[in-house]
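# step 3/5: fold
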Amino acid sequence: MKIPDIHQDANLIQYIQQNGKVGPAERNSATPAAQNQVPTEDKVDLSSQSKEMNKISEVLAAAPDVRAEKVEALKKQVESGQYQVKSDAVAEKMIKEFLFDFNR
């Protein structure tokens, strides 16, 4: 059985009373009028950093996923037989990616 800290509860009640959140008479009895009240409106305030992140997200969403000019240039190289795969560079990138993932 857990026994709550009495001093902590007393401090919380004192804080609430000082800030006008709940009066002593309101603590034990809820009025029917208060129970039937509907909140008028919810409001959210975003920080400037959050707004900036939202703009960045919109710009990224609008950017194309494929760079068509680069794809077309590579297609032409492959079709003409000029595209050469550098196996050393591919192996090096594979090892770097493995080590990066391994160290996370």
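# step 4/5: annotate
The helical segments are 6-18, 24-28, 32-36, 48-62, 68-80, 87-103.
# step 5/5: archive (pending)
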